[in-house]
Amino acid sequence: RYSPHLDRQPEEVDNRRELTFLLYTNAGWDARRCGGQLRCYPYDEQRLPEAPKRQFDVEPVAGRLVIFQSGHQVHEVLPCRYEGRVALTLWVEYR
After folding, report:
1. What DSSP character marks residue 44?
2. Which of 23, 29, 38, 71 has its CA 20 to 30 A from that of 62?
3. Distance from C-alpha of 94 to C-alpha of 27, rounded to nearest angstrom
4. With contact defined as beta carbons under 8 Å apart, do 41 and 80 qualify?
5. CA distance 64 to 8
6. Is the distance from CB of 76 to CB of 31 less than 8 angstroms?
7. Distance between CA atoms of 31 and 47, rounded to whole angstroms?
8. In the chain, which stretches have pLDDT less than 50?
């Protein structure tokens, strides 16, 4: 489980993560039984008025690719009741 966080905090001057890519490889995943969803929380409405107004969950099913801004998307991984959950993570950095 990962508690709510950003992949790049505003005060982290040496963290250059700009985009987060998550690719799930969990064939036949049943989120109701196994858990492990990615929960995303709303952006600041002032900055992105078109963004979702409430949290939403993403099931970690095989082939699903999730991309978000590392320093803006607060997210967490919900408790997982199965050890086989796999997510490949790539961070794209700025110069």
Report:
1. P
2. 71
3. 33
4. no
5. 23
6. no
7. 32
8. none
